[in-house]
Amino acid sequence: MALKLCGSSILYVIAVLCLCPRISWSFFTSIEPYEEQCYHENVKKGQVWGFLYEVSEGGFLDIDAKLTTPDGQLMYNEEKKTDDSYFFTAEHDGKYVFCLANQKSSLVPKLVYFMFDFLNDEKRYQENDEGHNKTASEVDKVVGELSIELLKLRRTQVKQNVRMETHFKINLHTNQIVSWWSFFEFVLIIGMALGQVYYIKRFFEVRRVI
């Protein structure tokens, strides 16, 4: 009986995870010098929402980022960050504004990858007439916590993939520079050898005066 109950609970958890509505967006954007780009998302109270970003190309691979709440308060503010992530539970309904700024760079545009991700599970946060949250079952609570951890794991995987691609581009660029420098050294050595042969030949050349 206990085994059947345990098996049913596991199947229920898997089914809820598969049907759990999750919404995510990911983008690559190029931010020019002195430019600021802002994006907004309507989030309901109690929803777990988050974002991550990483600079893949441009300058010292740094960017300024900030997040503003619906009432205008600055919730997140970081300067000259290569990558970061932020995850929170919304305390108010409304529009949250996320901005990326390249205002401290005067020459180089920045290519930035960023992603929005949140758990759109509204049933867990509905309120009754007395203003208290409805009691959820233990399985629902476990599923919610597990879903959040899976979201964090997914964000980490995406972040590592972007970082790996960035390092691959850096290695490729470095290899190209080394190859061109080796070719230049080869041409320089051949030129020096020919010059030395010509100089020695001229030095031992017998000149006749008529």
Description:
The longest helix is centred in the C-terminal third of the chain and has 66 residues, at 138-203. This protein starts with a helix and ends in a 7-residue tail after the last helix. Mean pLDDT is 76; it is low at 1-22 and 122-133. The chain has 2 domains: 26-121, GOLD domain (Jelly Rolls), CATH 2.60.120.680; 137-209. The chain is α+β, with helices and mostly antiparallel strands and 210 residues long. Helix 1 packs across helix 2. The protein contains 2 helices and 8 strands; from the N terminus they run H-E-E-E-E-E-E-E-E-H. The protein has a 4-stranded antiparallel sheet, with helices on one face. Strands 2-7-4-5 form a 4-stranded antiparallel sheet, with no helix packed on it.
Give a count of the beta strands, DSSP E runs of length 2 or more: 8
The CATH architecture name of the largest domain reads: Sandwich
Number of domains: 2
CATH superfamily of the largest domain: GOLD domain
SSE series: HEEEEEEEEH
Q: In what range is the share of β-strand residues?
A: 25-35%
- The radius of gyration computed from the alpha-carbon positions, rounded to a whole number of angstroms, is 30 Å
Helix-residue proportion: 40-55%
Number of continuous helical runs: 2
Could you tell me the CATH topology label of the largest domain: Jelly Rolls
CATH class call of the largest domain: Mainly Beta
Low-confidence stretches: 1-22, 122-133
**Alpha-carbon distance between the two ends:** 122 Å
Sheet with most strands: strand arrangement: 1-8-3-6
The shape, in one word, is elongated
Biggest beta sheet summary: 4 strands, antiparallel
